Amino acid sequence: MKAPAEAPASDLWVRKPGERLLFVDLYRLIALFLMVQGHLFRALVDMELTESFFWLAHETVHKFTASMFLFGAGMIFMIVTRRRWDEYKRFGRRTWRRLRRYIYFLLIGYWLHLPFFSLKHTIRVMDAGLLAKMTAVDVLHVIAVGLILLHLLCMLAGKPKRLVWILPPLGVICLIVAYFVSQNPIPGPVPLVSWISGEYGSQFTIVPWWGYIFLGASLGSIFPLSGKLKDERRLMNAIIIAGLVLLAAGIGLAVFRKLDFIYAPAYRPDQTIARLGVITSLIGFCWYLERWGLARRLKGAFFLSEESLIVYVVHLLIVYGSVLAPGMATIIGHKLRLPGLILAFIGVAAVTSAFTWGWHWLKKRNLNVLKIVQAGMVVAFILVYIIGPY
To answer: 125, 162, 292, 344: which could form a disulfide with 157 (CB 3.0–4.6 Å)?
Structure first.
């Protein structure tokens, strides 16, 4: 009797339990690179350059960055949660540590919007415009509260399989509702309305942006944890095909309706469809780059992916500043041509990477020291902020 043929060695490949998904790290690294570069270029570009073809290409690429970042956050959240489901489904030590981290980043989001380094002065000059500026919502707010909500949904679901029926509809609802919410003013107090509408200056709101978090988590909820190459490849081939179809559909819809595709609001249907297309096809492409060995060669840079929220905060402080010090946008302004922009980006990337590496190293080697440093910085700021005379 003839023995059955053995399966190809590649099809028998299995990831080690708990092994990092390098293709996800690569995807997040690409999103971080585009985010830092985009913010810097937009803050410092000579306005004459914005009339060039280069800038049209720049804005075409960077319109996808925020949705990439949010989708990736939801995806890796769900993969990590599924791997430790029994620990995360209850209010244990690991859950509280995760929730504290998200609350911490929510507070940083509001801190970045403080107008003055003095509570007394802030109260003295408070008006409706200043309140709107202080309570505006950005990516940190959306991610922090979105992931807290996502964790609570996991706990309520009880089993990972139930999330497959919960998360996709929630994500789609967020994307659809945004189209109608953005067209009409919403009554209510400014701090609350700022979470829903950009009427008072919020750059990011829960709709449509929570939609990308929930849809990213949806992909994370069906990602094979078996580690088998054939299981992962089947899913990745499917999302690459779906992504290319969505991208073509989004562009086609804009062309058919004769709409400006580059400078367009994020809530518009063609923008949403194209964004989902770019995201999913890029994730699939990054998976193949991992299989081809490129991701492993870049592994040394993946501490940035692991500390993506630190990268976000640090580069914002450098580029836009805070109540502690002005940023490059204030000091330099819109003056740089392409060579200057490239040099500025290299400098910001180097400083941000160095700080993030130090943070990552300290967290891995001596977490207690990092906690003491964090607490000291927070206490010092609060004391000066409260008693400051200015």
So the answer is: 162
